[in-house]
Amino acid sequence: MVGAPLAGRASERALNLARLAGLFLAVALIPGAGGAAAQDVTGLQFVADNATTARTAATSAPLAPVALTNGVDGAPTGQSIALPSGFSIARMATGLRNPRFMAFDDAGNLLVADAQTGSVYRYPVSGGSIAPSSQPPAPLLRGLDAPSNVALHDGFLYVGETTAIARYAYESAGAPGPREVVVPNLPAGGHSTRTVAFGADGLMYVSVGSSCNICAESDARRAAILRFAPDGSGSARFADGLRNAVGLAIQPTSGLLWATVNERDDQGNEVPPDLVTIVREGQNFGWPGCQPPAATPQDPGRDCTAITPPTVGLQAHGATLGLAFYAAAQFPGDYAGDLFVVQHGSWNRQPPAEPKLVRLHFDGGVPVSAQDFATGWQLADGNRWGRPAGVIVAPDGSLIVSDDQAGVLYRVSYAG
Fold first, then answer.
1. Is-contact 393 326, C-beta < 8 A?
2. Run of H or E residues at 128
3. Buried b vs exposed e over 246-255: b needs ≥16 C-beta within 10 Å?
């Protein structure tokens, strides 16, 4: 069941973030059996400085500029992305408007939600991978309300729209079935993405962001992750105090639900961090009254003693969005089980926090270090030519990354 630890591990895991010498140092609190003392894990370090300074952990491998190529003809685009040694990046697809989150079906076709066009596209598999293309295929679905993500479960394609979760009977070949709204009347206004993920328990998890930056919500579904049966019945609030949990992912080895959370604005350049965190049933992460990572009262006198600490904190205002666990074999062996996290880049930080991909390295199912994996979409003057949004592991082991500013899908591959 999502929210339960891996069998045989009764320990709770949480990472409390502290500021020290210009670094965010994450310390894992890992109680042992029988209430043993916590163990310090000092590998997680998050640098909070401007975009022209290296912002990786002490354990980071060096990054080097790699020419971005057109996937169709292999020609250089004149742009580059900094990656670890042995990796390459190409534009797999262009011509989209606002591609966000993605899913692969059982046949290996790639489904992409495009919020601006109100469409879901299906890129067909060919020879075991998605062929590069300069224009998207005809929409598989159209006329939707800002779809931001897709999920596949038990023969259905689920689409997260701003005010509803709809599903369609789905096969990898042919048209989808008729639209069935399983969760209607979700609240509109404010944060508009409605991400859908299915847990190891077979239940449907839906994130609904807040209506504001800092306010008291009148609708208990906001700033929360909700849980439903796949048909939309049995609605329950799974966890709350999550200002805007945009990305959801299930850790393959443990079945735990992880979320990326965009925290509150206008508190300062480095306050508070964005979150990448395990989410368990009944937890409250503090929004709006308590600031992470240490549950600092937003206002004097606020009681923050019952707030859940986040697992990992990343650059404040970095806008953490998509996330994906690496459960493939193309990348070097030490990437197995690691978590890739997309940072979309800030809108209210000076200098701007840059768009990038971050790699959280795991050991024994627990994050122990963080490092930049892909950077370069932001120029030295703060202008951007792209903004990654979603990330997914392809069946061939490459990473597919969506860029909702440039309207592009990238493929990141490893050849050694």
1. yes
2. none
3. bbbbbbeebb
How far is it, in rounded angstroms, from Cα 116 to Cα 98? Answer: 5
345 sits in the region (left: phi over 0; alpha: psi -120 to 50; else beta) called left
Question: Look-up: residue for tokens 């840059």?
Answer: 354
What pLDDT, on the 0 to 100 scale, is given for residue 392? 98
Write the burial class of residue 172 (CB in 10 Å: 0-12 exposed, 13-18 middle, 19+ buried).
middle
pLDDT string in tens for the chain (416-residue length): 444 332 222 233 333 332 222 223 232 222 222 222 222 222 343 333 222 222 334 345 689 999 999 999 999 999 999 999 999 999 999 999 999 999 999 999 999 999 999 999 999 999 889 999 999 999 999 999 999 999 999 999 999 999 999 999 999 999 999 999 999 999 999 999 999 999 999 999 999 999 999 999 999 999 999 999 999 999 999 999 999 999 999 999 999 999 999 999 999 999 999 999 999 999 999 999 999 999 999 999 999 999 999 999 999 999 999 999 999 999 999 999 999 999 999 998 999 999 999 999 999 999 999 999 999 999 999 999 999 999 999 999 999 999 999 999 999 999 98
Signed CA dihedral, 86, 92, 96, 99: sign only: negative
Coil/strand/helix, residue 282: coil
CA distance 370 to 359: 6
If you count them, how many residues does the chain have?
416
**Burial of 299 by CB count in 10 Å (0-12 exposed, 13-18 middle, 19+ buried)?**
exposed
Residue 360: what residue type? L
Distance between CA 63 and CA 373 in Å, rounded?
7
How far is 169 from 48, CA to CA, in rounded Å?
46
Q: How far apart are CA 206 and CA 23, in angstroms?
A: 33
Residue burial 14-37, b: 16+ Cβ < 10 Å; e: rest? bbbbebeeebbbbbbbbeeeeeee
Q: Would you tell me how many other CB atoms lie within 10 Å of the CB of residue 175?
A: 11
Q: For 131-187, write each residue's pLDDT tens digit.
A: 999 999 999 999 999 999 999 999 999 999 999 999 999 999 999 999 999 999 999
One-character DSSP codes across 200-264: TTS-EEEEE--SSSS---SSTTTTEEEEE-TTS-S-EEEEE--TTEEEEEE-TTT--EEEEE---
Give yes or no for a contact between 209 and 176, defined as CB atoms under 8 angstroms apart.
no
